Amino acid sequence: MATAGSPPANRREIHVLADRPSLIEACATRILAVGRAAILLRGSFHLALAGGNTPRELYQRLAAHDYASHLDWDRVHLYFGDERGVPPDHRDSNYRMVRESLLDHIPIPAGNVHRIAAEQPPERAAELYAGELARHAPASPHGPALDLVLLGLGPDGHVASLFPHTAALEERERSVVAVNVEQLQSWRITLTFPVLENAAHLLLLVSGAEKAPVVAQALSSQIPPPLPVQRLRPRGEVEWFMDVDAASAWQGGRP
Ligand code: 6PG
Asked: Against a cut of 0.70, is the pTM above it?
């Protein structure tokens, strides 16, 4: 039974792995499988990457020969779920983290990497990125149709940079917005709910005991207001990949 604020359970799979290495392995295997199927079926794989800390190890794993050699990178297009309002060489830049952990190690054509130009003023960066999505991502009646969007989960239930109490949560027209995140005293540029919801696959990667409370609330709570992650109404498949620490407060949280 789906809880309030979560997609119908029949379209949601939850994987709980014993530890972080097996979590990273399972996630990398899934992404590779979805990517190879997309390339086989439609000739390309359009993947939006998450920022933050958790996915760095995943990207390093995907860059390793036993994974990277099984994807035709000429047919892969990489996007970003969100970006901090900083230049691409800044220590907080998601692009920098992805370049160091993945891009510098794979033969992906530069034109296939669709960076958010966060060195621009925030609203301009959002406009430019929306144009990049419109030009390169597959189109659909519901807007850009990415094959897979990888998301992390913040302790406050944010995904991408869709933070609680921000106007970005209400955006249903534009594919990308700039958001001034007061709780962080910083600007972010983020994909909006319509793009996340239109992806064929949403994959949430959550690790560590510090995320246990938000995971339990996201998967089991019906107490309003819903967390940003609970406001997602995905059309496609949703898969949660967690380790036992992150799932430890959720009632189904044992592998
Ligand atoms: C970002 C991310 C953000 C992140 C979560 C979880 O730019 O920080 O896009 O949504 O995924 O905050 O971050 P951790 O993986 O570092 O816990």
From this structure: yes
